[in-house]
Design goal:
With about 230 residues, the protein is of the alpha+beta class. It contains six helices and five strands, in the order αββββααβααα. A hairpin with a 4-residue loop joins β2 and β3.
Length: about 230
C-alpha cells in the first residue's frame, strides 16, 4: 500500500520546521539595533534570547557576550521565549519519532491512530514556538534599547515564524489520519459468511438413466427417490 499523501506532507514539513525553529532559537539575532547614538555609525547590535552580539559592518568584527546594561534579558517576552522555544523543540523531536513509527513506510499498512497522535504533538509544538515569536514581535519596540536607535526585526525571528508555521501545517496533515480511523470504526462489521460443505449426492433410489423412470411407471412401483445428481443425467 502506498503511503498516504497527507502523511508524506507531514513528514516533509515538520523536519523543515524543526530545523528553522532550532536555528531561530540558537541564533542571537531576534532584533537588530542600529544607528546607536554616540557609537560608530556602522555598529549593529544583534539581540537574541540567549546572547547579544555587536558587529562592525565595515570590518565585520563580531563580538558576542555583550553586557546587558538595560535589563533586556529580564523582560517577560524574552523569558517566555527562553522557556517555550526549547520545549517546542523537544516536542517536535518526540512528534517526529512517533510519526515515523505511525507512518511505517517499510510496512504494508500504516498505523493511522499513531500518526494522528503524532500530528497533534507536532501541532502543539508549532503553537508553542509561534506564541513567543508573536509576543516578541508585538513587544519589539517596547523592549529596552538605547535611546534614539533604530529597531528592526532580524532573521532569527523570521525563521522562528516560518518554522512554527511549517510544524503547524505538518501536524494538521498528520492529524488527517484520524479520518481513516473514524471510517474504520463506523464501517459495519459483517459476520463471516457460513461455508456450506458440499456433501456427496445421495444415490439411494436415484435413477441411473431416463429408461428407469419409464420402467417404474410401467411396473407401477412407488418408491421414494431423490433428485438425481448432475452426474446421473
Amino acid at each position: 500500500m502506498r503511503t498516504p499523501t497527507a502523511m508524506i506532507v507531514g513528514l516533509v514539513l515538520c523536519p523543515c520546521g524543526l530545523l528553522l525553529t532550532l536555528t531561530g532559537t540558537l541564533a542571537p539575532s531576534w532584533r537588530q539595533v542600529s544607528l546607536i547614538p554616540n557609537q560608530p555609525i556602522d555598529l549593529i547590535l544583534e539581540q537574541g534570547i540567549w546572547d547579544m552580539c555587536s558587529e562592525r559592518q565595515s570590518s565585520h568584527d563580531r563580538h558576542c557576550g555583550q553586557a546587558d546594561e538595560l535589563g533586556y534579558f529580564e523582560r517577560v517576552p524574552v523569558q517566555v521565549a527562553r522557556g517555550l522555544m526549547p520545549t517546542s523543540l523537544v516536542l517536535t523531536f518526540l512528534g517526529l519519532v512517533v510519526a515515523a513509527l505511525g507512518v511505517r513506510c517499510w510496512q504494508k499498512e500504516p498505523q493511522y491512530l499513531l500518526a494522528g497522535v503524532a500530528g497533534l504533538v507536532l501541532l502543539l509544538s508549532g503553537l508553542l514556538s509561534l506564541v513567543p515569536a508573536s509576543w516578541y514581535t508585538h513587544e519589539l519596540w517596547a523592549l529596552p534599547a538605547p535611546a534614539g536607535s533604530t529597531l528592526v526585526v532580524s532573521y532569527s525571528l523570521v525563521l522562528s515564524y516560518l518554522g512554527s508555521c511549517l510544524e503547524i501545517l505538518g501536524g494538521l496533515a498528520l492529524t488527517l489520519s484520524f479520518h481513516h480511523c473514524c471510517k474504520e470504526c463506523r464501517a459495519p462489521k459483517l459476520p463471516p459468511s457460513p461455508v456450506l460443505e458440499a456433501g456427496p449426492c445421495s444415490t439411494t433410489g436415484a435413477y441411473r438413466n431416463p429408461w428407469d423412470v419409464l420402467e417404474d411407471e410401467r411396473d407401477g412401483q412407488h418408491r421414494r427417490s431423490t433428485l438425481p445428481c448432475d452426474s446421473d443425467l
